[in-house]
Amino acid sequence: MANATDVLVVGGGIVGCALAWMLAREGVAVTLIERRAIASGASGANAGSLHAQIPHEPFLGKGEDWARNYAPTLGLLAASITLWRGWPEELATDLDLSTPGGLLVAETESQLADIARKAAIECEAGVAVELLDAAGIRRIAPYVSSRVIGGLFCPAEGKANPLVTTPALARAATAAGARLLAPAGLRHLARVAGGFRAATEAGDITAARVVNAAGAEAARVSAMLGLELPIEAHPIQVNVTEPAAPLIRHLVYHAVERLSLKQARNGGVLIGGGWPSRIRADGRLVPDPRSMAENIAVAIAAVPAIADLRLLRTWPAIVNGTDDWLPILGEAAGVPGFFHAIFPWMGFTGAPVTARITADLLLGRAPGHDLAPFRADRFARSPREHDPPLRTAAQDA
Ligand SMILES: Cc1cc2nc3c(=O)[nH]c(=O)nc-3n(C[C@H](O)[C@H](O)[C@H](O)COP(=O)(O)OP(=O)(O)OC[C@H]3O[C@@H](n4cnc5c(N)ncnc54)[C@H](O)[C@@H]3O)c2cc1C
Fold first, then answer.
1. Is residue 318 in a domain?
2. Rounded to two decimals, what is the model's pTM?
3. CA nearest 310: which of 268, 274, 275?
4. Which one of 191, 274, 341, 393 is at 20 to 30 Å from 251 when CA atoms are compared?
5. Per-residue pLDDT for 126 more than 80?
């Protein structure tokens, strides 16, 4: 006989574990299934940055219209960081959380002009950001290179430790009464009377509602119900140095090069920014040495004092992405009871709000955010449906 639950959460990353905890705390019968180990995906291998601004790389590549379309996500990031600040106490765990602010640094006037265009959109969206000149940057961040001529300060940003966060959420979920099963991969999912039937590696489970929190593999889970989700899966990598004396206070980004740089409380400098790693022919994910060398060079150019540190480790992992960078949230159109809980690219930052919104929807509460921009069916709206009808030669004549 199949085990029965009210809510089945697919995926034991930060989103799934946070959701299981939030639901179990409210007395909901929740079972979470994870195909490998808890936090074995991006949630346990990311760089730990808490982002609050429009990511600069897609802004440069996709432009201002994209950034305005992205702007509703900024409200989610801000709400998520507020939730993050409460987690150390709620979870009774030191998450190495701090929010001293993020610094996007520029070396040329044209880079500064791009930053200013982005800052204008952030201000319109209500994000606190401040443009700084060279003296302003050096006053708060004397460690940045003398080549930096200015930049943007975003006070809400910071970091937390991915190695401890998701395990702490999983412990809290279990303590609150959630059932966490791992390894328990979902093999098959079908709609049945009263809900869903899931065939998993740990046996069959029936559930009234199902949440897709499978990160980069969310498209496969949705496909089991005939739903197409354009989730991307990108192999990227992060580096960490040996511990050093406290030096870098902020989360540091560069105005052109891929860079996120911060110092953990143990002194290690985490260096990332979305540089690609490799997938070998046998399917194994491995670091790309060229990405590593370029990433480190960019980091040293921004913060020269790290040049003498030894690199301890570089590791790869798969990040979940969407082309428009917006989350996918809410109940799937046409499949009542099936919910998406997907925050792409910056899902470590976005996990608390993703879980909170999904929990509120499942509990029948107003989610407190307009979810229209984040609906999965935005992808179904093909541009052709909105294009003006093609003119015929007769009309043109
Ligand atoms: C190298 C790297 C650096 C990053 N840096 C940052 C950062 O600094 N800041 C930031 O905000 N974000 C960062 N991210 C992104 C962030 O880590 C992810 O967006 C976030 O962790 C996604 O969380 P999740 O719980 O949705 O997915 P995941 O952590 O991927 O968890 C999904 C889980 O679902 C499981 N699963 C999949 N299919 C099935 C199935 N069929 N049955 C059962 N289980 C299944 C997987 O095994 C996985 O454990 C980074 C990502 C990477 C890879």
1. no
2. 0.95
3. 268
4. 341
5. yes
Q: Is residue 170 part of a domain?
A: yes
What is the number of the ligand 1 atom nearest to the C-alpha of 213?
26
Q: Which residue has the tokens 């049945």?
A: 192
80 found inside a domain: yes
Tell me the pairing of strands 203-212 and 338-342: parallel
Number of H helices, E strands in the chain: 11, 20
Domain span including residue 345: 1-98+156-231+323-380
Structure tokens of 243? 């511990």
Within 10 A of 280 (CB to CB), how many other CB atoms are there? 8
pLDDT at 381: 53
User: How many domains are contained in the chain?
Assistant: 1
* Alpha carbon of 12 to ligand 1 centroid (Å): 9
CA-nearest residue, atom 37 of ligand 1: 214
My answer on whether omega of the bond before 183 falls inside 30° of 0, hence cis, is yes
Beta bridge partners of 209: 7
pLDDT at site 88: 98
CATH of the domain at 88: 3.50.50.60
* pLDDT reported for residue 2: 79
**Ligand 1 site-directed mutation target among 14, 19, 46, most atoms within 8 Å of CB:** 46
